[in-house]
Amino acid sequence: MPLRMPIAMPRRSRLRLPALDLGEESLGERIARIRKERGFTQVELAKRIGIIQTLVSDYERDRLRPHAEMVVRFAIALDVTTDELLGRTPPTRQPRPMGNRRFLRRLQLIDKLPTRDQEALLRTIDAFLAKAEAS
Questions:
Q1: Which of 57, 58, 60, 65 has the smallest number of CB atoms closer than 10 Å to its CB?
Q2: Given a cut of 70, is residue 25 above it in pLDDT?
């Protein structure tokens, strides 16, 4: 019969560390705020990171704690430093775009299209606007 070793429970640490001031926001609240400032939906952020939307929601509601690699992935996807994401440094204020951020992000994507596609899309938009003005 094999000899079994008793399973020892991990000891509770006696180490007393000073509290860190990470601001008033939780990590999840900070992720949600920065995501909204960047104009991303949870689905769009999830796609940029390579996870599903429900996980983004769980991280934002502090139901899950991200491990180090996930913090880095969020920081890259949101274009911030890990220190900013973790609340160690103040947010870098980027100039806020005027108007609807989702609309402006779509304009950036349109700008990457071939010229022929851009012109076709602009003709469609112009026709739609002309019809709206006539109403």
A1: 65
A2: yes
